[in-house]
Tat pathway signal sequence (Microthyrium microscopicum), 273 residues
Amino acid sequence: MSLKTYAALPDEEANNVRIEKGVSAHIEEVRKWTSSRFLHFTFLYTVIICLSGMLLSNVLRNGSPMCGDISQQLFSPASSAISYEITTFGENFYQKTPYMCNVTDGLPTNATDKKWIDLYDFGNSWVTKDDARQLTLDTVQLPNSDLYVTQLTVFHDLHCLNVLRKSLYPDRYMSDYDDFINKDGSRNYTSVDAQHYDHCIDNLRRSIMCHGDVSTISWSYNKYRRVPLPDLRLTKTCRNYDKLREWGHEHEVMTALKWKHGPESAFKHSWDD
Ligand SMILES: *[C@@H]1O[C@H](CO)[C@@H](O)[C@H](O)[C@H]1NC(C)=O
Ligand SMILES: *[C@@H]1O[C@H](CO)[C@@H](O)[C@H](O)[C@H]1NC(C)=O
Ligand SMILES: *[C@@H]1O[C@H](CO)[C@@H](O)[C@H](O)[C@H]1NC(C)=O
């Protein structure tokens, strides 16, 4: 039957069929070649993307100061302590974290105070002369030592936040307030303590603006208030604080800083000679 049909085709049509077969064979050839080239490129791009991804995540994890972490263009003696991780924080309005107050009476406890102190009470750090020479500002040699003194801003910021936290509970932290609260209970807003609070607020403003955290807060329906409200859970990329604290402990200046009063020449600076 097919033979008969074939034979029935006029010559011209048979020719056309042959030409079309030739063309489609050629197209098939090109298609095969294109698709194999496509596969090769896909493979190569996949390899390149994977390798770059691995390199980038390695750089981000290790926070290499030389390449990668663009937030570390200036020298820090603690750059090796930077490591990033994605961290999820729970709701902290109704659910108290250990840094917050007693849920029953709304006041800080001794445990609260200890949590705060443990964040930064090793705050003054020693650095070698080599590191001290690379700081963004000149610093001073420690007494009876060839090491120099510095402090990581993160520890100073936490100290500031703790000072402000305590200022909300003057009854509990009375001894911190002899300068700020007058004998008649009124406040002295020109006292050194008041200036310390003002400094701390501005210091935290600087840090918060400097870091420009662009992680996001969502709204979710609150069944008690019957409206959507900001959802206080958070997921964001954080520097691992334990690593920074470890660095702080390893570099802690163990003795209280008691400088002997004297002329400037009595103190050696890291940028001297
Ligand atoms: C929390 O407050 C309640 C009520 O004042 C008190 O009984 C309890 O001891 C407090 N807890 C701590 C850890 O201070
Ligand atoms: C909290 O600490 C203070 C000062 O160290 C101490 O006098 C007080 O007894 C402590 N309170 C509790 C409930 O342990
Ligand atoms: C407030 O503090 C300043 C600075 O310590 C002091 O000079 C001033 O006398 C104080 N004012 C009062 C009313 O105590």
The helical segments are 2-7, 11-62, 110-120, 129-133, 153-167, 192-211, 241-250. The CA atoms of residues 65 and 73 lie 7 Å apart. Residues 1-10 have pLDDT under 50 and may be disordered.
